[in-house]
Amino acid sequence: MRKNKAKEIIKNGKAVINGWLQIPSTVSAETMAQQGWDSLTVDMQHGLVDYTNAMPMMQVISATDVVPLARVNWNEPGQIMKILDAGCYGIICPMVSNRKEAERFVQACKYPPDGYRSFGPMRGLIYGGPDYGDHANDEILKMAMIETKEALENLDEIMSTPGLDGIYIGPADLSLAIGEKP
User: Fold this and answer.
1) Mean pLDDT value of segment 39-63
2) Where exactly are the structural domains of the chain?
3) How many CB atoms neighbour CB 133 within 10 A?
4) Average pLDDT across the chain, whole number
5) Which residues fall within 8 angstroms of residue 130, CB to CB, at 6 or more apart?
6) CA distance 172 to 182
7) What are the percentages of helix, strand and coil residues in the chain, rounded to 5?
8) SS3 state at 127
9) Is the peptide bond before 113 cis (omega within 30 degrees of 0)?
10) Is the pLDDT assigned to residue 38 strictly greater than 90?
């Protein structure tokens, strides 16, 4: 299976240089993929991108060594599994506020027995290789977004969730949640 360069960078204690794609355009995704980013995130939450647009964007990104990631619009297993099947190598999941939600998210990204992801990796096999199913549980990057007051109160529990690779601060929603302006 193709290694997840972004996950390796994090394991080595370094910062991943990540670009952001909110416009549903293969041309913008292809152009960004040529600019030296470690990873590119297709924004399916606040951007204009839906699954129909995300799939071809994943295709052009995967023609490079840039790691394709997606921010899904919610902690919804069906959407998480579908975009992983499209060849996404990592998920940024919004509004994770407690350990139970973090566990649900992680398990949606993993095949049994570690999770409940359904096996149908269409492009995952193309991008990741024929042994994708053997290594996907370890290679897929899983990042929970911290955006609520409850998440701040439960931060240690969230961060200790087995299989969660890290957190991603959502500054606008978190600011609103604690009574500040974004």
Assistant:
1) 97
2) 5-177
3) 14
4) 97
5) none
6) 4
7) 40, 15, 40
8) helix
9) yes
10) yes
Nearest to 155 by CA among 182, 174, 138: 174
pLDDT band at 169 (very low <50, low <70, confident <90, very high): very high
CB–CB of 141/165 below 8 Å? yes
Burial code of 73-103, b = ≥16 C-beta within 10 A, e = fewer? bebebebbbbbbbbbbbbbbbbbbbbbebbb
Q: Is the pTM of this model over 0.85?
A: yes
Rounded to 5°, angle at Cα 25 from 21 and 28: 65
Where residue 15 falls among pLDDT bands split at 50, 70, 90? very high
5-177 CATH pick, 3.40.50.140, 3.20.20.60, 3.30.710.10, 3.40.30.10: 3.20.20.60
Choose the catalytic residue: 3, 11, 46, 149. Answer: 46
* Sole residue written with tokens 């999770």: 115
Q: Is 135 a catalytic residue?
A: no
Give the CA count within 13 Å in the CB-facing half-sphere of 77: 15
- What do you get for the CA distance between the two ends of the chain, in Å? 40
Per the structure block, which two tokens stand in for 76? 């919804």
Name the DSSP letter for residue 116: -
In this model, does residue 55 exceed pLDDT 90? yes
